[in-house]
Structure formats: structure tokens, C-alpha cells
Design brief:
Strands 3-2-1-4-5-6 form a 6-stranded mixed β-sheet, with helices on both faces. The protein has about 250 residues and is an alpha/beta fold. It has a single domain, classed as Ribokinase (UDP-N-acetylmuramoyl-L-alanine:D-glutamate ligase), CATH 3.40.1190.20. Its EC number is 2.7.1.49. Keywords: Kinase, Transferase.
Amino acid sequence: MTPPARILSIAGSDSSGGAGIQADIKTITVLGGYAMTAITAITAQNTCGVTDVVALSPQMVAAQIDACVSDVGVDAVKIGMLGSPEIAHVVAERLEALAVPVIFDPVMIATSGSILADKATIAGFERLMALATLTTPNVPELAVLGGDEGMAARGVTYIAKGGDADGPLVEDRLVRPGREALTWSAPRIETRHSHGTGCTFSSAIATCMGRGEDLVTAIAQARDFVRGALLAAPGFGAGHGPLGHHAMA
């Protein structure tokens, strides 16, 4: 049997299981990968919002990365919530030494609207965007990063996710320096159960790339996975409920 792709998720923990590390583990596992984690922060949250956040030390985050890479090895990395600018920089230091696909989800605001990154942490994103294979901002995150103009000035590859935009269609636009943009479009799935869509999308891309798919194919497969999980959402919680990762096996 071919060993599964080894995927390292560097992200925060979601106590309610819908987003963050928990969503990443579910996604990676269902897609046939082997999930490893470097937890950056612990959050108390549910479908209605985040009530508390405790960031781990940069040293502990680095130690988790080192433990995974030095023994099990890694085929691709997904980065999510970071928790502090110091963590952002230590993650960049560790990943600059690796030659594997890195998918960076620049998490700033939870689906519930809770703030998950301050200005200093967002400033720390620069090194990560520079080394990432792909950065995956949603509409408000792209605006904070300076929009298409700001991303073009950085010369990085990114996909502008359209789930937060208005309209009956959701368009995701892949921009690669020096190449024509690619756009995927599909009818909007009307649901309040969308907690963890960004985490799921980025970890799905990482898993597909870790098992050898090219970037465009990985994005297409990840989009299909997220849409299927949205349609299979179990309906838990009074707010923005989790996706139905379980149904995608």
C-alpha cells in the first residue's frame, strides 16, 4: 500500500470542533492523508462566537513543528490561525527550511465575527505569504492585505475566495504572477452552517498537493470537497454550524 501523504496543520484549536485544527484533522483524514498538528492557540468557542483565546509560546509551537518534521516527515503544510506575531515569525523560520507545498490561510476573523489576529500579527503574515505556495484570503482578509493591488505588489500566488461576497454565484479567483487568472464559479449554497469553510478549504488543498496533485487540480478538488461538506452540514448549534466532513468519506 502507498503511504498516506503527511500533512502538518499549524493552527489554533476550536473547542467546538468546527474549525481550526479539528476541521483540518477531519479534512486531511477523510481525504486519505495523515494529519499532524502544531497547535498555536487554544480557543473557547462554539457556533456563536469565541469567548476566550490563549496563545501558546513560540517555543512550544516550534517544538511541535520540529517533533513532526524530524521524525515522521512532512509532504505539505497548512497554516491557519497563528495567535501572535512571534508565532508567525517562528513558523516562517521553520518552514523556510522545508521544500514542500505550503498553504497559508491568513485567518483574521472567525465566521462568527470574532477577531483572531491583531495588527501586529497581520504584519507578521508577510514572511509567510512570501514562502507560501498559495495564500487563501477571503473577501475581508484580502481587503486588509491591500486588495489585488497589494497582493500584486508582493508578487505572491493567491486565491481570492468569494464566499463572503454578495450574489447568487460564488467565484474563487486564482492569481499567479505573470499568468492569466483562473476563476471557478458555482451557485451559492444558502446555509448558515459554514463554520470552518476556510480551514477546510486550505487543508484540503494541502492534502491534495501533498499526495502529488498540481495546484489547479488541488484547488478544484478542494472546492468540491467544501461544497459537499456544506451540503452535508449536520445542523448543529444556534449560530454558524460546522460542516459535514463525516459525509465526505
